[in-house]
Amino acid sequence: NTQKLWGGRFTGETDPLMHLYNASLPYDYKMYKADLEGTKVYTSGLQKLGLLTEDELKKIHSGLEEIKKEWDEDKFVRHPNDEDIHTANERRLGEIIGRNIAGKVHTGRSRNDQCVTDLRIYCRDLLNDKLFPDLQALVDVMIKRGKEEIDVLMPGYTHLQRAQPIRWSHWLSSYATYFTEDFKRLRQIMDRINQSPLGAGALAGHPYGIDREFLAAGLGFDGVIGNSLVAVSDRDFIVELMFWGTLFMNHISRFAEDLIIYSTAEFGFIKLNDAYSTGSSLMPQKKNADSLELLRGKSGRVFGDLAGFLMSLKGIPSTYDKDMQEDKEALFDCLVTVEHSILIATGVISTLFVQKENMENALTMDMLATDLADYLVRKGVPFRETHHISGECVALAENLKLSGIDKLTLEQYQKIDSRFGPDLFETFNFEQSVERRDATGGTAKSAVLKQFENLASQIHTI
Ligand code: ARG
């Protein structure tokens, strides 16, 4: 313990399991770049205060560069006493430039402001470098497919019962809409992630009057967290991110569930590409939709990350307590799972085969019963009445064991209601049914194309 960075007041050794239990380096090493950047800007702040000479600052910065190279090239050698990424980097800096100078970098700083500064930078960069572009690519693929396959019709479902014909592209557009909203929601969270805690010290503030705005600007933050107690202990941005991930995975899960159903032999609407399916060790004929099942299954895991960390957070007294170290494993798991899920969903959707004939063969005439009711509405009959009349037609066709309501004769129709004319048979056309729904958001070709246009412009507005 006497060798540890905080070892001065200790005489006894740490229990070996306690050391492992306490150490976060096995996962927080991921933030090495943010940690080194943070120290770089922080020491510039110290130099402005006269706490470091120009020459010392230069040596520190070149030492930090060297450490970054070691991490980048996977050559950083971890020391058994390293507790976390912050102590590991500081220990290494001392070895490279000498402890006399390295011993000054932590002046006025605490790991309490340091660790959460790193985490905010890490999240911001991951969003910018990965999640935003990945989400854009997912929505782009859905739009591209939707435009190419705009003519394909399929049954739309409520209660998983055939309801009304829609375009396959309309289904694609529905999930592209969820994912675009997810994208926008994530952008809004960014405003709260990208605030600087650095310079708040352990909890009470900085004793040498460091310029926190300078630190924030140097690290690309949009602002400074206005209370030092909050700066070190606020983890709301992590909760929000994991809630975001949970909601996103909920959308992914429902998207996957639809496709799982559509890929069964009973439906046969789509076929997964081999790249995203696996076989059975026993049954030679099997091709399973594992990619989709994992997209669905992993949504539970991400919710677990959120729920677990919220539980850890709820009883913590103000400011930093070690419970907060639990933020990282949950968050990293959530972010990796979400990122991979976006990539897998993108792969699935860009490579699956659409079985147009099966989709269209699944359309049945009773799905046009609403259109039949609308036919009489156009003749001036109140909808509540036409709904009833159309229902009687469906019942009659069923009783006569006809294949659909289009097989009833004009006489049979007129016996139910004299306002039916020979033009009623024009109702029995799926394409026209779909095309009638051309109001904003509907399934007509023009309306779906308009949706894609809107989504494309929203997903590319940063
Ligand atoms: N590894 C710690 C964390 O991630 C760093 C902060 C430690 N601070 C402290 N006072 N022990 O939360």
Short description:
This protein has helices at residues 16-22, 25-28, 32-48, 54-72, 85-97, 99-102, 111-148, 168-193, 212-218, 228-233, 236-262, 290-314, 326-351, 356-361, 369-378, 383-399, 410-416, 430-436, 445-459, and strands at residues 153-158, 161-167, 195-196, 223-224, 270-271, 353-354. It is mainly alpha-helical and 462 residues long.
- The CATH superfamily of the largest domain is known as Fumarase/aspartase (Central domain)
User: What shape does the CA trace take?
Assistant: elongated
Give the SSE string.
Answer: HHHHHHHEEHEHEHHEHHEHHHHHH
Count of discrete structural domains: 3
What is the typical, i.e. mean, pLDDT?
A: 96
Task: Give me the CATH fold name of the largest domain.
Answer: Fumarase C, Chain A, domain 2
The helicity comes to 55-70%
Number of helices: 19
Q: What's the architecture of the largest domain, going by CATH?
A: Up-down Bundle
What is the strand tally?
Answer: 6
* Heteromolecules bound: arginine
